[in-house]
Design a protein that fits this description.
mainly alpha; TSUP/Inactive_protease-like; 76% helix; Probable membrane transporter protein; cell membrane; transmembrane
């Protein structure tokens, strides 16, 4: 019989998958803070680094399933993905290594800033490039930075990689999303291996999150056209701001 804690973990993955599919955000934006706040109710304490480790498996699940679908649709720039993935994999390894050694307060602070940045983008709306253009020379270092953030914070490609591919590499937005998903799966494999080697990856929790994310992503894709995007973005932005405040209070409130 599945325990109440595992049902809650699967529920976290479901929520991450649904919101990720509807809003185009990486599941880690939901998974990491949700695990930190939910698991203590079941008597299970978890550090933010352990939550990030679990989130890597959710990112991997989304990357593999999403990339397969996008490849069938012909949206993935495979050559671009193969050329840029070494930068994100290298950055991911560095970020994951930092996640093993940095204090929890530092990781929580960076993650809170990411949540606020995501909320800002949802409310304001990102500028998008729809016409092909020459890639910037800043693409390789920028993608390495995206990999570092992925490894350190357990996020997918939607938050950092998609804007970089779209605005700096000049890839049209739909293909940028597809190519980012393709790269994301490759990067998450290396990140998960680093956290596993560091002893922070709980395989049971990771499996529950991955299951929920896969089911939730399918449900979110079907719900996307039925839910008013503007209202959902406003609600989720406020939730991200609240969550960032909660994280900062938890790690800095008693400083």
């Amino acid at each position: 019989m599945i325990s109440g804690m595992m049902l809650a973990v699967i529920g976290v993955g479901l929520l991450a998958g649904v919101l990720g599919a509807i809003l185009g955000l990486g599941g880690g934006v939901v998974v990491v803070p949700a695990l930190e706040f939910v698991l203590p109710y079941f008597g299970r304490e978890i550090t933010i680094q352990q939550a990030v480790a679990v989130s890597q498996i959710g990112v991997l699940a989304v990357g593999l399933s999403g990339a397969a679908s996008y490849l069938q649709q012909g949206l993935v720039r495979a050559r671009t993905g193969y050329l840029l993935s070494p930068y994100t994999i290298l950055g991911g390894a560095v970020g994951s290594g930092l996640g093993l050694i940095l204090p929890a307060r530092a990781v929580a602070t960076v993650f809170s800033l990411l949540l606020l940045y995501s909320a800002y983008n949802l409310l304001r709306g990102l500028k998008r490039v729809e016409v092909e253009r020459t890639p910037s020379r800043l693409v390789p270092p920028a993608m390495t930075f995206a990999g570092v953030m992925s490894g350190l914070l357990g996020i997918g490609g939607g938050t950092v990689q998609v804007p970089l591919l779209n605005l700096l590499a000049g890839v049209p937005i739909r293909q940028a999303i597809a190519t980012s998903t393709f790269i994301m799966g490759l990067t998450a494999v290396g990140n998960a291996l680093v956290y596993q080697a560091g002893g922070l990856l709980d395989v049971r929790l990771a499996a529950g999150v991955a299951l929920g994310v896969l089911v939730g992503a399918r449900a979110g894709a079907s719900l996307q056209s039925r839910i008013p995007a503007a209202q959902l973005k406003l609600f989720f932005s406020l939730l991200l701001i609240f969550t960032a405040g909660q994280l900062l209070w938890k790690y800095w409130g008693n400083a």
